[in-house]
Design a protein that fits this description.
Elements: H1 3-13, H2 19-46, H3 51-71, H4 75-82, H5 89-104, H6 109-116, H7 121-144
Helix pairs in contact: 2-3, 3-5, 5-6
Organism: Frisingicoccus caecimuris
Protein name: Stage V sporulation protein AC
Keywords: Membrane, Transmembrane, Transmembrane helix
């Protein structure tokens, strides 16, 4: 197979993606997840919970739902439709941790789950910390010179 034939083959088997439709699906799907979170928060607040407690319970329930969806192998079909819309930070992070735990559980508690659980989530944590430090430094500089 020469280079031209290979290129034709790759174009033939590569799925065609409508970028604007994918963007719209991700936007709507992520928005729905955020609306679910906001509804949970509003309900907890209506039950008389303080702001921080309502936030904590909302976060825990969104994590629980994401872990259950991962455990029942439903994240694949959801992300096939929603794309990056499912990767709203809390649900995407919970999925990355739970999927590693499920994948490596057969290797045992210590050498499987314990050592591999943050395979995917580790870089997210690292870059989240570095980015927050960087923007915190910018904010501190702007505060120091009186711009904020």
């Amino acid at each position: 197979m020469n280079k031209k034939e290979y290129q034709d083959y790759v174009e033939q088997v590569t799925p065609k993606v409508n970028g604007w439709l994918s963007f719209l699906k991700a936007f709507v799907s992520g928005g729905i997840i955020c609306v679910i979170g906001q509804c949970l928060y509003n309900w907890f607040k209506s039950q008389g919970m303080m702001h921080t407690l309502a936030n904590n319970y909302t976060t825990l329930i969104l994590i629980l739902i994401s872990v259950l969806l991962t455990g029942f192998n439903l994240v694949g079909p959801i992300t096939k439709f929603a794309g990056a819309g499912y990767l709203v930070p809390i649900t995407g992070f919970a999925n990355s941790v739970a999927s590693c735990a499920i994948e490596f559980k057969r290797e045992g508690q210590v050498f499987g789950i314990g050592s591999q659980i943050f395979n995917i989530a580790g870089p997210v944590i690292l870059y989240g910390i570095v980015t927050s430090w960087f923007f915190g430094l910018i904010y501190w500089i702007l505060m120091s010179i009186g711009m904020v």
